[in-house]
Amino acid sequence: MLKSMTGFGSGRARVGDEEVSVEARSLNHKFCEVKVRLPRELSALEPALVKQVKDRLARGSVEILVRRQAATVSGNVPTVDVALAREYARAFREVAEAMGQSVEIAWSQVANQPGVIRLEEKGVDVESATQATQTALQQALAALETMRNTEGESINADLDARMKLIEGWSQDVARLAPRAVSDYQQRLTERVAELARGVAVDPQRLAQEVALFAERTDIAEEVTRLATHLEQFRLLMASPEPVGRRMDFLVQEMHREVNTTGSKSQHAEISARVVSMKAEVERIREQVQNVE
Q1: What is the pLDDT of residues 79-107, one digit of tens each?
Q2: Domains of the chain
Q3: What is this structure's pTM?
Q4: Kind of pairing, strands 32-37 and 60-69?
Q5: Any residues with CB less than 8 A from the CB of 203 and at least 6 apart, and which?
């Protein structure tokens, strides 16, 4: 089944005190290009995350956004300088003894001194953050693939409908091709008879003209190759592997055969079908640009 290259997915995971959210977006691209946006403290994870994406996706421009959730609203946590608190307590005792007062020190008195309790940014637990990031990324990629698969089904249905149209017109062209020669022979005979006005015409000469016309407008090879390309395209549509680039190549070949058929044919009905086939091949080409 075909897969689209367009999609979105998100995931969230928590390991210990580390909570991480990941968003994954993908768009069309000839290859698999991955861009990862990480918090500064997790920048070392980029190579591993890029590999994780490329192990699951074959093509597409993929953007990964990683956010690390703070443990508090401000992102800071209170930190106690125990050594400084001891120094304050010692200083209080010295002052009390120097003043001849009893030594009674309340813990709140020490805690309120400058620098004893201060707010600092909490350090990252790299191991927990790594596990949380990888888990959240797996969730995001799973959701992304689900969306790509769903859109791929829609693309497959659209391509199937357009392929049926082209296959039908191609069969019409193959059926009309012999008639093009006989119609030309009839028109030529009638035109020569009208111009000759009773003068005898060499039938051998007429036969040569018809043979030259048949050779010049012969589209049997183009019709056969087009049928082969259509059959190969059908096989790719049913393939579980990424087939976007191969489809793109086949569409170019289909376009070439249809163009050649149109340039050779001088039959109105064939030309009309060629115009229709060109339009559908172009629509198929646009759709294939989004196939993985």
Answers
A1: 777 888 788 788 878 877 777 777 677 77
A2: 7-72+125-149 (3.30.230.10), 76-121 (no CATH), 151-288 (no CATH)
A3: 0.70
A4: parallel
A5: none
